[in-house]
Queue: 2 jobs
Job 1
Amino acid sequence: MSTATLSIDLDAIAANWRALDKASASGVQTAAVVKADAYGLGITRVARALAQAGARRFFVAVAEEGATLRQVLGPGPQICILSGHMPGDTDMIGDLDLTPMLNSLDQVTRHLESLPGQAFGVQLDTGMNRLGMEEPEWEAIAPFVLEAGPELLMSHLACADDPDHGLNETQLATFLAMTNGTGVPRSLAATGGILLGPKYHFDLTRPGIGLYGGRPYEAARPAVTLSLPVIQTRAVAPGEAVGYSCAWIAEAPSTVATLSAGYADGLPRSLSNNAVLWDGDTPCPLIGRVSMDLITVDISHLPQIPRYLDIIGPNQSADDLADIAGTIGYEILTGLSSRYTRRYYEGTA
Ligand SMILES: *Cc1c(COP(=O)(O)O)cnc(C)c1O
């Protein structure tokens, strides 16, 4: 088998959820964000582990993800749809008991007309200018919408990963102004917002990346190891080149390993000549260009040929890899290939 192995520690994910739950007061509910196939780790096993840990409310981006999640979780847990109620979503929302976060007057009208009595929340824009109703629009329709009984009023912070950013306080003040006195449960914080402290917590928090071991939750337990099998090794003489465009040329007699994974698997091409893989605790430089399905690694200094090398693991997190590639951990995780064999570990704590 030459597909790489993505090992996912479900105990670590459950422990991260519990720790983030403990980071807010006991009256604050902690949801779990499992959009994009649980940040690339596999929604089926991850959502089940989170439900077992105690999560009762889940957020996904689109209704189709909600439909998948309902099959996984069965009836009971609340499944919230961040993109709201789009044309074509009505049957899924109604039949599978999904809870859309309505983003506009259009969506409010669609929802209340097509599924009267079906649960919904409202997403408010407090300064990110991405999703949700802005202040004037909300002011105009709030009395009518509140009459219909939303389950949640929510908004999202644009700069929560930077505690010193002025927009955090501004968004908080706007959120308070838009929701005070409504009596409806409120939610503002994702992972970064939880770490900003209690005044950002309201009634419900929505952590995603922190559950999976990513920044800005530095205290997270790592949850992911990605091991790439060595397909072939060869001796390369000084002056010989390796890979596309001869981007690496041997200066000394070298042993080069060819590993199974490339940019088609979510390893950014910007890692070319610029990253390390790990044989246990020994770093091995990635040499030459990242190809579609393969990378090449200098293993000249290893005493024996390894069966695989880790590109994410104890010595290099998804965030570390992202730093090298010039991106963020979120993008590395959600780009993890469907070709990888996902192995889940639990009950080992
Ligand atoms: C993705 C997302 C979250 C989770 O954010 P993390 O930074 O991964 O914790 C929460 N709320 C909304 C609206 C989101 O889009």
Job 2
Amino acid sequence: MEYISTRGEAPVLNFEEVMLAGLADDGGLYVPLEWPKFSTDEILSLRGLSYPEIAEYVISPFVDNAIDVSTQRKLIKLAYQNFGHSSVAPLRRLDKNVSILELFHGPTLAFKDFALQLLGCFFEEVLRKRGERVTIVGATSGDTGSAAIEACKNRDTIDIFILHPDQRTSEIQRRQMTTVTAKNVHNIAIQGTFDDCQDLVKGMFRDRKFRETMNLSAVNSINWARIMAQIVYYFSSAVALGAPETKVAYSVPTGNFGDVFAGYAAKKMGLPIYKLIVGTNSNDILERFFESGDMSYRAVVPTLSPAMDIQVSSNFERLLFDLAGNDADVVNTAMASFRDLGLMKYPPEILSLAQEIFYASSVDDEETLRVIKSIWEDFDILIDPHTATAISAGKKASLESEVEMVVLSTAHPAKFPDAVIRATAKKPELPQRLSHILDAPEFYTKLPNDLEAVMDHIRQPATSQG
Ligand SMILES: *Cc1c(COP(=O)(O)O)cnc(C)c1O
């Protein structure tokens, strides 16, 4: 399988190269040159298979011969064996025609584990084969950092350094990172904001000498392999609900547009998805785009669903490229106008194509709390604030009655206890297997918001928190 960049200037790469590279060197994102297509019979044949079996079927055309089939099977099994539910991604019926897809049974209780657990296994396999080591650096305001740490811990070929803003993550999120006692895991608390952390990471990648000596790598949401892993649960859930005969639609809590783009990919591969609903919080750029074509930047406001406090959804570029018929010129013009004017310019037909498939709705904090409360009162189920935005957006989409709507539940309620308690006066309990983090010792290094100081720290081979 060959992969091309959305900006048209970077070299064509194979799967292994795309996974290790992350971002394309022309600043674009990699996408498959051609999409694998499954026939109705092939989709029917997935019925009754286990999650790892469906994953193998969906993923193998993308991985191609970069990893041989029996190794792929072994790694997929490993990646999903630490999930706290035997179905990995169980569906739970909420109401007539509405189900919740629980994507929070992974080791860090959020859907990012689906991609990162697999990516960790694949990275290690490929690096070992090449005899290489990498240093992964990343910035996190919460979920991504812990999911990346869990995916990379105790791997011989990887050192991972995660920067978080000191005192500015929730306690649970910080403890999920800082209580991990693996030799190759290094937490850094930066005296600054999340943006400062991100700037430090960008600064390290821009320093060519540092990048090359440390063999820097990233596992952020633009990595193609992450999208690929997320396509699987669209297939597994649709088939479980009776697709391809049954019409299914998905409502997805959206920030960087990676998760919902995986749904778009599933549709391109032949899964009959009737509608993709984008749920956002008050950071509503996507609602404005899908409603009226207005893709203009506004400042980010903090909300109860912090993983979606984003105004520039990086994976949107992949959609734009696809809707433009793989025309990199369209993407380059759009991204340049967005960067220079804060307003994305694109040909008008893009919007109507997008509206055929997508519907978007922005949900503010008040509505989010109301939804958490009503789901608790009506169904005895606690949901997290991200999931709540998707439930609300899904309702507003007013789908026809024969369509089965699947709401992606991207985080366990115990990850966001404050919002849940405010809405329901009930405290969501951490699952037993995580309760130890509440009193385990924490390991991290506090550093100033200073690039040289952080790079010095990462250069020391002996830094370890274990
Ligand atoms: C990351 C995240 C999202 C947003 O997913 P994208 O792929 O960035 O759109 C939604 N909910 C939770 C809980 C997350 O951690």
